[in-house]
C-alpha cells in the first residue's frame, strides 16, 4: 500500500515525465529556437576530460625509464647490446593501442579528433623513420645510422605535443617541447662532429622526454581537473 | 521568406542536432543527459533524424550492452545551417510573426 510520501513521489515523477514529453510537443518561436541552440552549444562546449594527458605521461615515463635503464646497463656492463632495450618503446606503443582499441568515450569533440589524428601522424612518422633507418643500416652497413632515431623521436614527439598545445590553447604545452628540440639538435651535432656529449646520450633522451612529454602530461591533467 | 525545416523545428530534435553540430560524435547516454529527455522520446526523435538522413546512428556492441553513437551527416549540417539562416531572416524581419 502506498503512503502519502510515495504518492507525492509518484506524482512528481509523472510531472517530470510530462515535462520531458512536452519537450517534443511544444511549438517553438524563433527566440526559443535560438535559446535551445545556444544552450546546447554551451553545454557541449569542449571540455577537457580528466586523464587527457595520460597518453603523454605513458610515453614520457616509458622513454625516461628506458633511457635511465639503458644508460645504467651500459655503464655496468659496457655491452652496447643493451641499446636494443629501446625496442620496448614499440612494445609500449603496441600495448597501448591494443588496450585502448574499441574503447569510445561518451562524446568525441573536434579537439579529441584533431589530437587523435596528430598522434596517428606522429606515430606513422616514427614507424616509417625506423623502417627507413633499419633498411639503410643493412643496405649500407652503417649501424650508427640508428642513433639518428633518438633525436628524431624527440623532434617528432615535440612537434606532436606542441600541436596539441596549439589545439587546446595551452601555452606551456605549446612551448615546452622547444626545449627538447635544443637537446635533439645537440644530439645531432654531437653525433656529426663527434664530440662527447656532456650528459650521456641515453639520459639526454630521458631528459628530453621529461620536458616534452611528462611535464606537459601533468599540465594537461591538472588543467582538466580544474 | 523561407520556411523553417519542420524536422528541426522541434525542441528535442533541435537540441540533439545543436549538440551534434558542436561535437564529432556523441552517444545516446550523453545526448539523453544533455537534453534532459526520456530514453523513449529521444530514441523516437533520433530515428526520425536518422530516417531523414540528418544524422547517422551507429549501433555497436559494448560488452553486454548495445551502444548508439550519433554523428551529423553533410545533409544534416546543411539543413541546420539553412534552419539558422531562416531563423535569422525571421528575426531580422521588422514585423515577424510567431513561428509555428
Q: For the CA atoms, what is the radius of gyration of chain A?
A: 26 Å
CATH class of chain B: Mainly Alpha
Integer tally of domains of chain A: 1
The end-to-end span of chain A amounts to: 48 Å
Which regions of chain B contain 5 or more consecutive residues with pLDDT less than 50? none
Largest interface: A-B, 29 and 38 residues
Q: How many domains would you count in the coordinates of chain B?
A: 1
Largest sheet of chain A: none
Largest sheet of chain B: 3 strands, antiparallel
Number of helices of chain A: 8
Number of separate strands of chain A: 1
Q: How widely separated are the two ends of chain B?
A: 14 Å
Overall shape of chain B: elongated
Notes on the structure:
Chain A has one domain. Chain A is elongated and about 80 Å long. Chain A has about 230 residues and is mostly helical. Helices cover about 75% and strands about 0% of the residues of chain A. By secondary structure, chain B is an alpha+beta fold. Chain B has a 3-stranded antiparallel beta sheet. Chain B has a single domain (about 10-90), classed as Winged helix-like DNA-binding domain superfamily/Winged helix DNA-binding domain (Arc Repressor Mutant, subunit A, Orthogonal Bundle). The interface of A and B includes residues 27 and 107 of A. β1 of chain A pairs antiparallel with β1 of chain B, so a sheet runs across the interface.
Question: Could you give a short description of this structure?
Answer:
Chain A is an all-alpha fold and 226 residues long.
Map the helices and strands:
The complex is a heterodimer of chains A (226) and B (100).
Chain A: H1 4-25, H2 30-43, H3 54-77, H4 88-100, E1 107-109, H5 110-140, H6 149-168, H7 171-192, H8 201-225
Helix pairs in contact in A: 3-4, 3-8, 5-6, 6-7, 6-8, 7-8
Chain B: H1 11-22, E1 23-27, H2 28-35, H3 39-51, E2 55-62, E3 65-72, H4 74-92
Antiparallel strand pairs in B: 1-3, 2-3
Amino acid at each position: 500500500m502506498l503512503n502519502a510520501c510515495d504518492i507525492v513521489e509518484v506524482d512528481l515523477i509523472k510531472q517530470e515525465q510530462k515535462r520531458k514529453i512536452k519537450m517534443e510537443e511544444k511549438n517553438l518561436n524563433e527566440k526559443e529556437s535560438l535559446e535551445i541552440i545556444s544552450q546546447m552549444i554551451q553545454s557541449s562546449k569542449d571540455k577537457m576530460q580528466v586523464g587527457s594527458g595520460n597518453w603523454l605521461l605513458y610515453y614520457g615515463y616509458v622513454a625516461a625509464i628506458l633511457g635511465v635503464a639503458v644508460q645504467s646497463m651500459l655503464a655496468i656492463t659496457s655491452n652496447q647490446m643493451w641499446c636494443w632495450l629501446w625496442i620496448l618503446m614499440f612494445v609500449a606503443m603496441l600495448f597501448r593501442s591494443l588496450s585502448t582499441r574499441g574503447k569510445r568515450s561518451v562524446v568525441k569533440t573536434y579537439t579529441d579528433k584533431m589530437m587523435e589524428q596528430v598522434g596517428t601522424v606522429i606515430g606513422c612518422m616514427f614507424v616509417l623513420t625506423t623502417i627507413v633507418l633499419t633498411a639503410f643500416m643493412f643496405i649500407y652497413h652503417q649501424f650508427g645510422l640508428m642513433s639518428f632515431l633518438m633525436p628524431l623521436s624527440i623532434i617528432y614527439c615535440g612537434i606532436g605535443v606542441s600541436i596539441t598545445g596549439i589545439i587546446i590553447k595551452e601555452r606551456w604545452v605549446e612551448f615546452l617541447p622547444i626545449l627538447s628540440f635544443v637537446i635533439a639538435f645537440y644530439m645531432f651535432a654531437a653525433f656529426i662532429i663527434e664530440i662527447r656529449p656532456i650528459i650521456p646520450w641515453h639520459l639526454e633522451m630521458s631528459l628530453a622526454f621529461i620536458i616534452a612529454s611528462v611535464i606537459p602530461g601533468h599540465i594537461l591533467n591538472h588543467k582538466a581537473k580544474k | 521568406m523561407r520556411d523553417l525545416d519542420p524536422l528541426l523545428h522541434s525542441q528535442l530534435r533541435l537540441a540533439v542536432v545543436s549538440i551534434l553540430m558542436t561535437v564529432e560524435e556523441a552517444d545516446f547516454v550523453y545526448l539523453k543527459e544533455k537534453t534532459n529527455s526520456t530514453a523513449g522520446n529521444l530514441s523516437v526523435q533520433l530515428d526520425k533524424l536518422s530516417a531523414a538522413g540528418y544524422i547517422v546512428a551507429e549501433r555497436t556492441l559494448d560488452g553486454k550492452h548495445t551502444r548508439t553513437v550519433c554523428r551529423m551527416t553533410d545533409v544534416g549540417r546543411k539543413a541546420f545551417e539553412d534552419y539558422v539562416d531562416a531563423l535569422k531572416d525571421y528575426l531580422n524581419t521588422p514585423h515577424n510573426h510567431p513561428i509555428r
